[in-house]
Write a structure and sequence with these properties.
Helices cover about 75% and strands about 0% of the residues. With about 130 residues, it is mainly α.
Amino acid sequence: MSELVDELIRNAKMPDNFLFQNLIVYQRSLAFSIKVCKLASDFPIKYSRIRDQLIGASTSIPLNIAEGSGRKSVKERTNFYNISRSSIFECVPLFEICKNLGLISSDDSTVLNQEAVELSKMISKFIASLSIS
């Protein structure tokens, strides 16, 4: 019997990725997070607290989408997606602070803010779609 189970496991078709990796909102949030991390990594050491806060907030966006996707109930998934959206909101004043301190350019701040708005809308629509299903 054990040999049969072993054979079934070896021949089972496993997905090449997790379902959340196919979500556009996840892909965009991941790209956003990487862009923010690259920008923040160049901050002078005296701004390490701002750097760490910005990296933490931006990486929380795709992390919570991924974690929420692994939850069974709509309520649990929604909670993680709301945390993801809140992390976007956390990034916005950090962009303004960074711009005013000369850590990022005005153009970078504008682009990042626009992407944050887009991501927030996408996550809001994603959350709304859960309650419809």
